[in-house]
Specification:
It is built from ten helices and seven strands. It has a single domain, classed as NAD(P)-binding Rossmann-like Domain (Rossmann fold), CATH 3.40.50. Strand 4, helix 4 and strand 5 form a beta-alpha-beta unit. It is globular. Helix content is 51%, strand content 14%. It starts with a strand and ends with a helix. It is α/β, with parallel strands linked by helices.
Length: 269
């Protein structure tokens, strides 16, 4: 009898990551939750297994550590798990003036947001290729399409992940591996963001989505073979309009966005 396949989700301790784990379990996929220690992964995996009648395992690690990806892969091999879906979700965000953060912070952010998903994709792709159907979902951001103040490095990492995904899709075109990249807009992924998003008005407020909404749209798109997934109608409209908005209006918008991001940074400090 063949071993059951698992969906491996990084950054699965909370927010969109846990929403991905729950959406996969709801659809009948066995799940492997990967996140930092101290995020109650034992309880969360137990709850998922009980609620959705699937196998739910977990692995605690800090993926920003140099050997973490190898340790995760060794755990998968040791437990004799077959990974049929890889969801590269773990990442670090930031709000604040570029000079506010030390170089060491940016090194960690770049490593976690770019090197880790590339590494995990590379080491797991032989397992994924060996199956009749398998999936990779890379979690980028709407920020990948825009130049934004206060998020210079974060947006650059997400643009890298988008470019990497689009190129790798061409490489995998004739294979059994479906690779999709999802670019969410603003998401109520933690208590701080939920509080911040309450102050938004108009279209900005309407663009905010719940983690469960993003996860449901992303997994449905992945399984349907969509190469690029942008959850939310307003986000899709904004992406199209970005190429048509005059430079002057963009500058004015970014100036206001800089003020908003600076306010968010002060509230988070």
């Amino acid at each position: 009898m063949n071993n059951p396949t698992f969906s491996l989700i990084t950054g699965a301790g909370s927010g969109i990551g846990f929403a991905f784990a729950e959406e996969c379990a709801r659809r009948g996929f066995h799940v492997l939750l990967v996140s930092l220690p101290g995020e109650s992964l034992l309880q969360k995996s137990t709850d998922l297994a009980s609620k959705y009648k699937v196998q739910a395992k977990y692995f605690e690690c800090d993926l920003s550590e140099p050997n973490a990806c190898t340790e995760l892969f060794d755990f998968v091999k040791r437990e004799n798990l077959v990974i049929g879906m890889l969801i590269n979700n773990a990442g670090m965000g930031s709000n604040g003036d570029f000079e506010q953060f030390e170089p060491s912070f940016y090194h960690k952010q770049i490593y976690l947001n770019t090197i880790v998903p590339v590494t995990l994709t590379r080491i797991f792709i032989p397992i994924l290729r060996a199956q009749s159907h398998s999936y990779i979902l890379n979690v980028s951001s709407m920020g990948a399409f825009f130049a934004m103040p206060q998020k210079e490095v974060y947006n650059a990492t997400k643009a890298f992940l988008l470019s990497f995904s689009r190129s790798l899709q061409l490489h995998l075109e004739e294979s059994t591996v479906q690779l999709s990249v999802v670019c969410p807009g603003p998401v109520d992924s933690n208590a701080r963001l939920l509080e911040i998003h309450r102050d938004l008005k108009g279209m900005a407020k309407k663009a905010v989505m719940k983690p469960s909404e993003v996860a449901a749209i992303a997994i449905a798109g992945l399984l349907a073979g969509k190469p690029l997934i942008i959850p939310g109608r307003l986000n899709r409209i904004m992406r199209v309009l970005n190429g048509w908005i005059p430079a002057g209006l963009k500058k004015n918008f970014m100036r206001k966005e800089m003020e908003r991001q600076a306010a968010l940074s002060k509230r988070g400090s």
